[in-house]
């Protein structure tokens, strides 16, 4: 690092000497080095495009190809080079403005690509066309505005153009700042500093009068340093740490997925505490760490006057895919229940509908029933789900329900139901298999412990679901491998 620092110091001193004694030499050296760096940006970005994890640097690389083309012409057209003697100082200034516009647009397009899909082919077409048209407006159809007048200096158009370009760079800075979490902090800082230096260079280029002056030289220094920073950011991203941006992008998407899933899950698990005279007590815990995202869902609604329908289901899987399937099954089942609440009919129609939408390796276990709030009669059908428990103050008995397969397993299956009576002083306890499977495989919580807990807490109604869930967690040592949901239904006092 010391050797690199000394080499840079010597190089800067040599450039400063050249700028004072022979400005054309200084300009040629700076521009040549800038061209090499810009060409390197394009070559590295383009040849690593198949492994590049961020579109930002790839788009910057492509835009710098066109910046290089214009910058080459600017270098040869500089006053005193003799390549385009008829252009004077105006021609290189015009070409400089074109290159600045292209580069500032490159940062804007790259910034947009952080949040929206931008086709690389469209980038080539857009910047290629813009480059061709602006160059044609100088040589073929000379309508490009005058930027420098000999003996006077910069025109108002040139100064305004620089301010517009600085505003565009500022826009690119804002877009990058908003999406800086897509990069390693070091890379984001390099790119932000590069844009800041380009803005500072623009300020220097609005103030100079002499094309060989100090401000012009300072502007070229700042521009050169910005190109080096962009190149370093590119090298760091695609060569030294090629997967860092990819890992950050994966993490960002996972976090977004969790936020979406949690929102959906909250909506799925939101039911009224009382409906048509039936009280609901419920508790839930997800096996997914840190977020309430899982395969369990439940619902409570009134499909007809005097009827209360209840649903408790479990989709195999976790995360946003399971939550999306939950939504689909829940909405499908509810829509059929409003047409005909009979559990046999609802589960058959739901099975036929969701069986075509669930993946081949996916299925859903569901318990669905309807309570007659006047008589207490309960008609229940289970699709591969653990049977509910009828709980009185001094007894708890699992319901003996006909066996049916989970939803999505067998086509055209006729589901059988069971009929029971919910006592005015009793409760119907529903739960997912995560409750009875809590703990080690050799000694899971099991139905017997559920029954024992309910009998020993026969007086409890409000908070009963949470107490039962906590008891299973205690048995499992404080953590579970599957989602756990408990619902307790009883007549309101």
User: Biggest β-sheet: count, sense, barrel?
Assistant: 6 strands, antiparallel
Please tell me the overall pLDDT: 81
Structural class: alpha+beta
**Rg calc:** 35 Å
What's the end-to-end separation, in Å?
A: 79 Å
The general outline is rod-shaped
Number of separate helices: 14
Low-confidence stretches: 289-293
Write out key terms for the chains shown.
493 residues, alpha+beta, 6-stranded antiparallel β-sheet, 5-stranded antiparallel β-sheet, 14 helices, 55% helix, rod-shaped
Question: What topology emerges from the helices and strands here?
Answer:
Layout: H1 2-21, H2 23-47, H3 55-77, H4 90-113, H5 120-139, E1 148-149, E2 153-154, H6 156-178, H7 185-207, H8 214-240, H9 244-268, E3 274-275, E4 278-285, E5 296-304, E6 307-315, H10 319-339, H11 343-354, E7 364-372, E8 377-383, E9 389-392, E10 395-398, E11 418-421, E12 427-431, H12 433-436, H13 446-456, H14 464-475, E13 484-491
